[in-house]
Amino acid sequence: MRLLFPLFIVAGCVMSVPALALDAPASPPADRPLKNFVTSVEKDGSITFRLYAPAAKAVSVVLGSYDPMAMQRGDDGTWSVKTEVLKPDLYEYYFNIDGFRSIDTGTNAPKPQRQVNTSLILVPGSILDTRNVPHGDLRLVTLHSKALKSERQMYVYTPPGYTDSSKPLPVLYLYHGFGDTVGSWVAQGRAPQILDNLLAEKKIEPMIVVIPDTETDVPEAIAENFPGADRRKDFYPANAEAADRELVEDLIPYMKNHYRVRSDADGRAVVGLSQGGYQALVSGLSHLGIFGWVATFSGVSTTTVPNKAVDAALNEPAKINKALRNFTVTVGSKDQVVGKDVAGLKATLEEKKIAHEYHEYPDLQHEMDVWRPSLAAFLEKVFKK
To answer: Which terms in the Gene Ontology molecular function aspect does this entry carry (predicted)?
Structure first.
């Protein structure tokens, strides 16, 4: 039955519905260029945020770790505010519209997330740019995971010039963090641009990079089923065990069967950020004969999420020191999310005399400004003879 008029009948009374709730949202006037109504990066490196929302009462924008900026409404219904000149970087932001958190619908760069609520914007001038250099190929691969009994996707980056007849290349497995998707290291992490640019500068070895989905979505480990307070106790352990099985039983064999890859431990690295850093720790230390390089960026650790295999490995420091060519740990100095995890891991590595590299990024929190530089720095070390 179609509702032909905007009325509710409640307890014998006729109640009208506010017209605004049923009207189509207003569109920017068609007699002016759209650029007047959408966000843009200015020539000096500042950003002018714009949002066309004539009916809104109050709008602000939250840019990264900056304080919220109040936006002013123009006579045409466009809210705007201009930032100071910003350093070249990829920034994340969102609008607060009358208490509702929103992406920027005037741009085409939402942050890849399981629940999308943030946008991205690039101020050019850094290693994150798409430069005029040789570019690798990026493929979205769909495969059946026998370990997880489901269809799964991963990105595979191959360097410029790679062919089926190329010499076998080393492989780096790169895991994203909690709440993100398989596209996170691509769109927000800018891994393809970082790889292309470092290769062009001859700072890194040619390699294949596999970006799996950290979230396995097995029945016992679906992220949305767990309250935040129970995540470390219940979700992380079950998901990490499933992701480790997928990596060893499905992803590594797939790469061996479909790409020209090395099969020795020195030719494999496992890396991740935050939850993905925990995954790198679990898989890297559980399979010392498979991986020769491990890196965890702002990673959850066994300090808060115990793992028997990792704890067993940490109790055999000589074995780790012999097996790993490099073990890297990084964190922002003001990280309130995993500060305890990283401090605990660092203390254990020092106590056990396990060789590792530790780098702390001053004044930074749990953010990409730690993880992208961490990746670039690790790429310059990994697979070097």
So the answer is: acyltransferase activity, transferring groups other than amino-acyl groups; hydrolase activity, hydrolyzing O-glycosyl compounds
